[in-house]
Design goal:
4-stranded antiparallel beta sheet; 7-stranded mixed beta sheet; about 50% strand
Length: about 130
């Protein structure tokens, strides 16, 4: 059974930092591209960042560029999202996702490009 389990969310003040982790099991994700998405109440799921199988190629939404860093540690089948300089508008449920392809593809920002999803974790940034 394929599972993606997020951890590391919580409540933080504006300007603070959090690191999200996504532990993958049931499949060898070291050959999969992966990504992070988020969804705020009443809004559509929004792309945050993506990374190819090796970690050598990354792609970010403009809204998080320079503040967030996506990385992965394939030995542990784990994906990370380091979030710095957090803003209240970053408040959302964050989801990790994996696609059965090693590269980012042409549309890494689209949820339909991903085959597996975690259950999500809440991140709340207070002002």
């Amino acid at each position: 059974q394929v599972q993606l389990v997020e951890s590391g969310g919580g409540l933080v003040q504006a300007g603070g930092s959090l690191r999200l982790s996504c532990a993958a099991s049931g499949r060898t994700f070291s050959s999969d591209a992966m990504g992070w998405f988020r969804q705020a109440p009443g809004k559509e799921r929004e792309f945050v960042a993506a990374i190819n199988w090796s970690g050598g190629s990354t792609y970010y939404a403009d809204s998080v560029k320079g503040r967030f860093t996506i990385s992965r540690f394939n030995v542990k089948n784990t994906l990370y999202l380091q979030m710095n300089s957090l803003k209240p508008e970053d408040t959302a449920v964050y989801y990790c996702a994996a696609r059965r392809s090693p590269g980012l593809g042409q549309r890494p920002q689209l949820p339909i490009e991903y085959d597996y999803w975690g259950q999500g974790i809440q991140v709340t940034v207070s002002s």
